[in-house]
């Protein structure tokens, strides 16, 4: 049996806050409980919002908090060619297609009350799905901006109807969770500015790094449906998943720098110690040692 391998994977689009610290702490605690190891991945595919100073700040904050990682840090921005190759494999099988529609065009083509994905985004109406391969190639050759979308109907036709993943709780065993990828519609798997999306990159990286257990927030629980489908289509293994509670602000909103949530740097400046913060995180998690 392979050694359990977990990862903490922040995006460098702002300073880490208490919610990030909670997730990092929980990953480290579960890795220790399982006798496994924990790696750091920087999910920096956004060429505008991902900045070197924020990456350095993430590493500094995690070191201050006392979270130890093994192996080299994986930077997604250095593996864009790998994601493009995965996208191209799906496209070659007719499972992905280029979409040239702007957001305005998509809104204009949508039905009056369209179905929406779990993030509340209306399903793509399929405008570009019927483009001939020749027309699509010609438009790409002309340099027209485009995303790549998963053809959900074709994708589901290629995998068994019954799909599920294994959810685990270090305190309470495992269970099987059925998935419904269709609720995501023809999801974007590659953006206009980079040859991938979060969904495609994270699925590829979990397999490339040999990740066996994924511990992340409940805000990503619904995305697991799409990730399981992509894993099946690309012939990749599925990790076990644990979706932890989110740390909310007094108004009941998810912590975010855009809403003024205090960063770890703010807490450090106010006199917080890593020991006190780790104690607070352990109490918040209810996670027992041993």
Characterise this structure.
- The protein folds into two domains: 1-77 and 248-290, 3-Layer(aba) Sandwich (Rossmann fold), CATH 3.40.50.620; 79-210 and 219-242, Glutamyl-tRNA Synthetase, domain 3 (Alpha-Beta Complex).
- It has ten helices and ten strands.
- The protein has helices spanning 18-34, 52-65, 80-92, 103-109, 133-141, 152-158, 198-208, 223-234, 264-269, 274-285; strands spanning 5-8, 37-42, 74-75, 96-99, 147-150, 164-169, 173-178, 188-190, 213-217, 240-244.
- The protein has a three-stranded parallel β-sheet. Strands 4-5-8 form a three-stranded antiparallel β-sheet. Strands 6-7 form a two-stranded antiparallel ribbon.
- Helix 1 (18-34) packs across helix 10 and helix 7 crosses helix 8 (223-234).
- The longest helix is centred in the first third of the chain and has 17 residues, at 18-34.
- The protein is globular.
- The model has no long low-confidence stretch (mean pLDDT 93).
Supply the CATH class of the largest domain.
Answer: Alpha Beta
Q: What is the CA-atom radius of gyration, in angstroms?
A: 20 Å
Biggest sheet features: 3 strands, parallel
The stretches of 5 or more residues where confidence is low (pLDDT under 50) are none
Given the structure, what is the number of helices? 10
Major sheet: arrangement of strands: 1-2-3
Give me the CATH architecture of the largest domain, please. Answer: Alpha-Beta Complex
The gross shape turns out to be: globular
GO molecular function, one term: ATP binding
EC number: 6.1.1.17
Domain Glutamyl/glutaminyl-tRNA synthetase class Ib catalytic: 6-283
Enzyme class: ligase
